[in-house]
Amino acid sequence: MEFYHVLNRGVDKRNIVLDDRDRVRFLHDLFVFNDQQPTIHYKRPERQEENRGRKLLVYIHAFCLMPNHYHLLLSPAVKDGIALFMKKLGMGYTKYFNERYSRSGALWQGKYKRILIEHDSHFLYIPYYIHLNALDLILPEWRIGNVKDVNRAFDYLNAYRWSSHPDYNGIKNFPSITQREFLSSLFETKQEYEKEILNIITNPELAEQSHFLE
User: Fold this and answer.
1) Exposure pattern of 61-90 as b/e (b: 16+ CB <10 Å)?
2) Regarding predicted confidence, which is higher, 49 or 81?
3) Is this model's pTM higher than 0.85 or not?
4) Per-residue confidence at 214, pLDDT binned at 50, 70, 90?
5) How high is the pLDDT of residue 52?
6) Helices vs strands, H then E, count in the chain
7) How far is CA 62 from CA 39, 59, 80, 90, 179, in A?
8) Each residue of 51-68: pLDDT tens digit?
9) Predicted pLDDT of residue 185
10) What's the rounded Cα separation, in Å, for the pair 159 and 165?
11) Which residue of 53, 54, 55, 97 sits 20 to 30 Å from the alpha carbon of 36, by its own alpha carbon?
């Protein structure tokens, strides 16, 4: 199975979500557009039964939505699955955003970036780095491994609904979006998962490797 880090930003670094309605809509789109069939019904992902009647384009292993960008960890489920999924996601969310805010034109800063994860060191840590992006909003010093208030960091990550971190940490959030079996087998236990996060946000050598997310 191949793993790709996929990301994109708003054009001119503009915000791509302005409130929780936009955030829920983007997560909704991650769910409904991940289907080989045309998208007809629009329901929030937490109201859907997981994967029923769907033929996935990609496996979404992890995600984090930020104010002006997003990060996804994907594997193709079918040939050209990532390209098809990203086309549906990019166009679908842009259509929603432009209609809601009475705007026109591009929302994204060009085509999304797709990076094949080739090195074991990147593969082992990228799910953590994707989830830790949320700390940029309150504790940006995590990127140099200098977080002093680790309890605040964990509380914030657990409360941040717009990533797959809560679902990996035993907090039901948007479980239908992600296919967590593979990574969960690597994390082993909640305690091991949290221990690795602690290691990263307090260890400069590990934290500074997060630059490959950019």
Assistant:
1) bbbbbbbebbbbbbbbbeeebbebbbebbb
2) 81
3) yes
4) low
5) 56
6) 8, 4
7) 22, 9, 19, 18, 8
8) 457 899 999 999 999 999
9) 85
10) 9
11) 97
**CB neighbours of 149 closer than 8 A, spacing ≥ 6?**
139
CA dihedral over 179, 181, 119, 66, signed as positive or negative:
positive
The amino acid present at 107, given as its one-letter code, is L
pLDDT at residue 111, as a whole number: 93
Q: CB–CB of 62/73 below 8 Å?
A: yes
> ∠106-13-131 over CA atoms, to 5°?
110
Q: Token pair 């060191």 is at which residue?
A: 121
Separation of alpha carbons 200 and 57, rounded Å:
32
Give the residue, 18 or 212, on which the prediction is more confident: 18
User: How far apart are the C-alpha atoms of 63 and 164, rounded to whole Å?
Assistant: 6
CATH fourth-level superfamily of 4-116? Transposase IS200-like (3.30.70.1290)
Nearest one of 72, 11, 48 to 175, comparing CA atoms: 48
DSSP string, 169-185: TT--SSTTT---HHHHH
